[in-house]
Amino acid sequence: MASSKFSAPPTAQHYLVCGTEDCENNCLFYCNPCHRSMCEQCRDEHQKSPDTKNHEVVPYQQRKRQLPEVKCQIHLNKDVDMLCEQCHVPVCSKCATKDHGGHTFIDLETVYAEKCAICLHEINKIEEYFLPTSQDLLKSIKKDSIEIKKIMDDIRASMKAEAESLKSMVDTITSQKIEQVNEIEESLQELLKSQDIKYNGYISYLYELVKKFYGYLSSKDIKTLLSEIIRNLKIDPIPETVKPIPPVFTAGQYSKEDVTKLLGRVTVPDTKPENRKIKPMETAASTQSKPKGKRRKQDREKSDTKPTLSLCSSVTKVREYTVPGVGKVYHISLGKSGRLWGSDDNGNLVQTDLQGNQLQKIQTSDRDGYHTVTQDGDLIYTDRKNKVINRITVDNTITEFNKTVDWEPISIHSSHINGDILVGMIKGKEAKVTRYNKTGEKIQNIQRDNKGRELYSNPHYITENINGDICTSDYIKNVVVVVNKSGQHRFSYTGQGPDFRPYGICTDLLGHILVGSISSYLFSMLGYRNNVYLLDQDGQFLSTLLTQKQVEHCPCSLCVDDENNLHIGDYLFFDNTVTVYKYLQ
Question: Which of 84, 252, 298, 571 has its CA 20 to 30 A from that of 128?
Answer without folding.
Answer: 298
